[in-house]
Specification:
The structure holds three protein chains of three kinds.
Chain A (H helix, E strand, L loop, with lengths): L4 H7 E12 L36 E2 H13 L3 E2 L6 E4 L9 E4 L6 E12 L2 E16 L3 E5 L11 E5 L6 E7 L9 H19 L11 E11 L9 E6 L2 H20 L7 E5 L6 E6 L9 E2 L10 H9 L5 H12 L3 H9 L3 H9 L4 H19 L10 H12 L5 H12 L5 H8 L7 H14 L1 H8 L6 H11 L6 H11 L4
Parallel strand pairs in A: 12-13
Antiparallel strand pairs in A: 1-10, 1-11, 3-6, 4-5, 4-15, 6-7, 7-10, 8-9, 11-12, 13-14
Chain B lengths: L8 H9 L5 H19 L2 E4 L1 H13 L12 E5 L26 H8 L3 E6 L33 H8 L5 E5 L6 H7 L2 E4 L20 E5 L2 H11 L17 H7 L6 E5 L9 H16 L3 E5 L7 H16 L20 H12 L2 H14 L5 H24 L2 E5 L15 H5 L6 H6 L2 E10 L2 E9 L4 H19 L14
Helix pairs in contact in B: 2-3, 7-8, 8-16, 10-12, 10-13
Chain C lengths: L8 H10 L6 H18 L23 E2 L9 H4 L6 E2 L2 E5 L7
Antiparallel strand pairs in C: 2-3
Classes of the chains: A alpha+beta, B alpha/beta, C alpha+beta.
Bound molecules: magnesium ion and zinc ion (ZN).
Chain lengths: 500, 496, 102
């Protein structure tokens, strides 16, 4: 019998540690001039440096340093006056040199924090997540396992390696131990990753696409009996590929740990893999024998010593914090809390803001993005920001409705066509011959025809039973192929039937 | 004609520039000399006959456009530098058959100045050794006595010069691998200031110590080659972005009047053979007679240098050599379809690395591992600071430091092969230089019982010119006495 | 010097495994003796350990050597794979990878 979550948090106190790896969106890799285009054909973005060929040497990408400092500043970190790269030594075929150039005891940013808001039983509450460090490193290549059942590593006959990803700049952001979250640990974890993602997006330093791996989260979870004042043994869950999974993984691990502790068993310190399908984690390599990474200063690179002027310049250029911006926009647009939260959750804030900036009414702009466009995004299982309709196009549609040139229904057709790639709103309208029927004589003819076709319904309306008008309006709309303005049809119809 | 291969690089360069000789003739003469002598010497791992002749023809065609004094002159390249399309093994089985898809910066610079690369020279595997006996492809023999070692790791390059197979060679020096072979073969070799020559394309042994440098049979040729390969490289983050000192002018000036020359007290005495000490003393007397002031200087922390070196170099090597894992290039052993990548890695590294490389990888892995780092690697780094301070203090008093390059003349092949600690002592006088990153030259000081003795000059960082200034002065007097370069006295050397 | 060894045979075996080098029994024994001898010789550096001298990991004191974020030509996949012991579909083919799921 699985434990209930309420039962777990009634007796145990969770502690979290979150490690987020972010792929920077620089043009080139961390240590060489190879391009970083996602999805390029295998091994087309490689060179002697990122293939770890004998003799090749790394050279640091200046933009990557700048992006990392900006991340550190946005997370309220101190910037280390002189930080160094170090080699992390371990053998793995996806790592061309069999060491990763990373940072160890001298990371570039330290001691920051990020405040996140979580809805609790007592209302919204702010949790401060302390950041231990932000450091630079390089990504590994990708392996494709051939011959196994599912492309998974176990049971594979051999593997194929593509090093296009090897050497892409990674920034690792590590929290200090997060405690005192109580039962909200899963929500806090999710809110942290989400807030971090929003910050990184606002900085423009990364694509932050969890599904493409440009933002990856490892969640360390441990439990201790409430009041014990101790830290339990932690597990580290990898492969957490969505915000929802962050929450599920933390909750799942809490329940799993509690089950072990209840039975008097030990939690094994190990790496576990989150499985999207079941929401459970699976054991990976045990870390009981701690890896011996033999870190030492990278002799091929010089220290990074950003001067104060540069740091202050970067600080002065930081964008508005997402949380501050949200509060500002909410007030400006006069949006209720719940609606604002919905907009944030859908990732619609930027889109609505841009649409409003192009002249659309905030309520209308929000209505389109959260309504029809979100619905289509859900149907296509993509994020709202990946739907191929631009704020400019949405603003134009809102404008056309306002001008009476589109009805809501027609506008929905236009939105669908724009998303389907049939062109911008104006060309879709031209191509499809969409237009609001405003010639009232033809409307009246259609209304008279409807009344003639459904005399009993018409009679009901005449007698004051207004809901029956719907059937007649429907018939008119059908007759006019949906191009009539439904409100006007209703007005005219009721007039004809003496109910105006 | 038969004496063509005895000519200096500077002479050959001039004759080619004047159209008196073609690069093809000169190149062919050296290829013939290799063909005739290399079965006895084994200086080369790969002779690139077609490639060299093509480069020579190209040099002949482009003669008018070049103002390089070495245009068309052939050179022997240590097999630790990547040359596009040419086998590069580092003396190891694990890289057998590997042809780099790129040129090292040194090779690119050689090509740019019209120098013809004859082939790749033998070396201790991954430059680990002092005798070239650690080559997976068999030892190189010293042209002075083929029962003796030519030094290492760059024994192939030094032996090629001594055997008149090439007038120029490139070596690399991590703890003495240019200078010690130069000393025991009677040739000249320079380890430039760390960062003076790009390491891009130099297969790393110990990144914070490695440095490629020029080798030749006389000081001026060495300077001319130094000028070609030195300078800032945007591909090497540890390359110095500053003008290269004018080493050629210094070699030509060759004037030590008023210079202060410091004799390192710690690099003498016990362990230094009498013949070595005698030639060293004679050289000092020459320099003094030329107007230099000789001062004794103490560098008390040099006694820790060997220990620090044999921790730092293996530590860095253990990491640098991790990439040789059978996955992307080179040897793969044991891939039977059933074994895992991990097993194949371990089996390949077992089969592909020789004993000295394994020894150093294991030593370095240990020195960096949890629990030992501070005691070994950490302490060695402190020693490095102390040694650097010793140099700084010495250069307050003197312009250059000097010592014998090696404590002994060339030893016999096999004599120290299974006694690593005894072997390591060969480099006791050269190692402090690498730890501090300063510049150093070895040049011939004469013979002891028929075998060459080396004289070491050590200059402050980025004062490589002083090496040539002092070396040139000493050489002028010695060559006058010997009637030419010391290598002309090699007995029984067959010259076509 | 003589007597107590600095490193055991088992420790050498553990280190060799960490360095991914298979060692036969005889080779292990031989190597363990040599490593022990070398450690004896290099342990002299520990005399400097107690001092408050700063560690020096590199001879150069320069900082901030970087390159601009500009794309340079990559190798072609053919060049990249030219030295590969095995390849397939423009990828390096390697034996099955154990350990952690990638
Ligand atoms: Mg990391
Ligand atoms: Zn690259």
């Amino acid at each position: 019998m699985a434990l209930s979550y309420d039962d777990v948090v009634a007796r145990y106190e969770p502690s979290l540690g979150l490690e987020v790896h972010v792929e920077l969106n620089t043009e080139t890799k961390m240590f060489c001039g190879c391009a970083t285009v996602f999805g390029a054909p295998p091994n087309t973005q490689t060179c002697p440096v990122c293939l770890g060929m004998p003799g090749a040497l790394p050279m640091v990408n200046e933009k990557a340093i700048e992006s990392t400092i900006r991340i550190g500043l946005a997370l309220n970190c101190a910037i280390t006056p002189k930080s160094r790269f170090a080699r992390k030594n371990y053998f793995y075929p996806d790592m061309p040199k069999n060491f990763q150039i990373s940072q160890y005891d001298e990371p570039i940013c330290t001691n920051g924090y990020l405040d996140v808001e979580v809805e609790t039983d007592e209302g919204a509450k702010t949790f401060r997540i302390e950041i231990e460090r932000v450091h630079m490193e390089e990504d590994t290549g990708k392996s494709l396992h051939v011959g196994g059942a599912t492309g998974r590593i176990h049971g594979a006959e051999y593997s194929l390696l593509d090093y296009n990803r090897a050497g892409i700049p990674l920034v690792e952001i590590v929290t200090k131990v997060v405690s005192s979250t109580g039962k909200y640990a899963p929500e806090v974890a999710k809110a942290y990753v989400k807030e971090l993602r929003d910050i990184l997006r606002s900085l423009g330093v990364s694509d932050v696409k969890m599904e493409q791996g440009s933002l990856r989260c490892d969640a360390n979870v441990s439990l201790a009996p409430i009041g014990s004042g101790k830290l339990g043994t932690r597990s580290e869950t990898k492969n957490v590929n969505s915000l929802r999974s962050v929450e599920r993984a933390v909750r799942g691990e809490m329940i799993r740990h509690a089950g072990l502790l209840d039975k008097g068993e030990r939690v094994v310190q190990e790496t576990r893999h989150f499985q999207e399908d079941t929401g459970a984690t699976r054991s990976g390599r045990s870390k009981e024998q701690a890896e011996d990474y033999r870190y030492f200063p990278e002799p091929d690179l010089t220290p990074v010593a950003p001067d104060a002027t540069w740091i202050e310049k970067l600080r002065s250029e930081l964008p508005e914090k997402p949380s501050v911006r949200r509060a500002r926009l909410q007030a400006l647009w006069q949006v209720p809390d719940k609606e604002m939260a919905a907009m944030v959750n859908a990732g619609a804030v930027d889109l609505v803001e841009e649409t409003v900036a192009l002249g659309a009414d905030p309520t209308k702009a929000r209505g389109w993005w959260l309504g029809e466009i979100s619905r289509l995004a859900n149907e296509a299982e993509v994020e709202l920001s990946s739907v191929s309709i631009s704020p400019k196009e949405v603003a134009r549609i809102v404008e056309l409705i306002g001008a009476g040139e589109l009805t809501d229904k027609l506008a929905r057709q236009v939105v669908a066509a724009v998303i389907a790639g049939e062109g911008d709103p104006d060309s879709v309208i031209a191509a499809k011959g969409i237009k609001v029927v405003s010639d009232e004589s033809s409307l009246i003819a259609a209304i008279e025809k409807a009344i003639a076709d459904q005399p009993e319904t018409a009679e009901k309306v005449r007698n004051g039973h207004l809901p029956a008008a719907g059937a007649l309006i429907g018939a008119v709309m059908k007759e006019t192929k949906g191009q009539a303005d439904a409100a006007r049809v209703r007005e005219l119809l009721l007039g004809q039937l003496g109910q105006a | 004609m038969s004496e063509l291969v005895r000519k200096s690089a500077a002479e050959l360069g001039t004759l080619i520039a004047q159209g008196e000789l073609s690069s093809r003739e000169v190149t062919q003469a050296h290829l013939d000399q290799i063909a005739q002598t290399d079965s006895a010497i084994h200086a080369f791992l790969h002779v690139d006959v077609q490639g060299a002749l093509a480069q020579a023809d190209h040099a002949d065609k482009s003669r008018g456009e070049s103002n390089s004094p070495l245009h068309g002159v052939p050179l022997a390249l240590k097999d630790v530098l990547a040359q596009k399309g040419v086998p590069t093994t580092c003396g190891s089985k694990i890289l057998e058959g590997w042809r780099p898809p790129y040129d090292s910066t040194v090779v690119a610079k050689l090509k740019d100045s019209g120098i013809v690369i004859l082939g790749k020279t033998n070396m201790d595997e991954f430059a680990m050794g002092s005798s070239t006996e650690n080559s997976a492809y068999g030892p190189t023999r010293n042209p002075w006595d083929t029962n003796r070692i030519p030094g290492g790791s760059g024994g192939g390059s030094a032996a090629a010069l001594a055997a008149m197979q090439a007038p120029l060679a490139i070596g690399t020096d991590t703890g003495g691998s240019i200078r010690q072979p130069a000393a025991v073969t009677g040739t000249v070799g320079v380890k430039p200031t760390y960062g003076g020559v790009s390491r891009y394309g130099l297969v790393a042994f110990s990144s914070s110590l490695d440095q490629a440098g020029p080798c030749a049979r006389n000081v001026l040729d060495t300077a001319l080659l130094h000028q070609v390969i030195a300078g800032y490289d945007p591909k090497d983050a540890t390359s110095i972005n500053a003008p290269v000192p004018d080493v050629v002018a210094a070699a030509k000036r060759a004037d030590v009047r008023g210079m202060k020359i410091g004799v390192v007290k710690e690099l003498s005495g016990d362990g230094y053979e009498k013949g070595v000490a005698d030639r060293f003393a004679e050289s000092l007397a020459i320099l003094e007679s030329q107007g230099a002031e000789i001062i004794e200087v103490s560098c008390p922390n040099f006694k820790f240098a060997l220990g620090a070196y044999y921790l730092i170099a293996p530590s860095e090597a253990s990491s640098n050599l991790a990439r040789f894992d059978a996955m992307r290039y080179g040897l793969r052993v044991g891939d039977d379809g059933a074994r895992s990548a991990e097993e194949v890695m371990s089996l390949t590294r077992e089969a592909g690395f020789g004993p000295e490389v394994k020894r150093r990888i294991i030593l370095g892995t240990y020195a960096l591992s949890a629990g030992y780092y501070e005691a070994f690697y950490g302490s060695a780094q402190k020693v490095r600071t102390l040694i650097t301070r010793d140099f700084a203090a010495a250069y307050e008093k003197v312009d250059v430091l000097v010592s014998p390059t090696t404590p002994t003349v060339a030893f016999k092949i096999g004599e120290k092969s299974d006694d690593p600690v005894a072997m390591y002592l060969s480099d006791v006088a050269t190692i402090p230089v690498n730890l501090a990153g300063v510049a150093s030259m070895s040049l011939p000081a004469g013979l002891s019982e028929g075998l060459p003795v080396g004289f070491q000059i050590i200059a402050p960082a980025m004062r490589d010119d002083r090496l040539y200034q002092v070396g040139g002065a000493l050489e002028r007097e010695l060559h006058a006495k010997w009637n030419g370069p010391l290598t002309n006295q090699i007995p029984d050397l067959q010259v076509r | 010097m003589a007597g107590k060894s600095r490193i055991s045979r088992d420790e050498v075996a553990r280190i060799a495994a960490l360095a991914r080098i298979t060692l036969g029994d005889d080779e292990l024994t031989h190597l363990a003796g040599q490593i022990d001898g070398i450690l004896d010789a290099v342990a002299v550096v520990q005399e400097a350990a107690g001092t408050d001298v700063p560690a020096m990991s590199h001879p150069l004191e320069i900082s901030n050597v970087t390159r601009p974020d500009l794309i340079r030509p990559s190798l072609t996949p053919e060049e990249a794979l030219s030295g590969a012991p095995a390849s397939e579909e423009s990828r390096f083919r390697v034996p099955q990878i154990l350990g952690e799921e990638a």
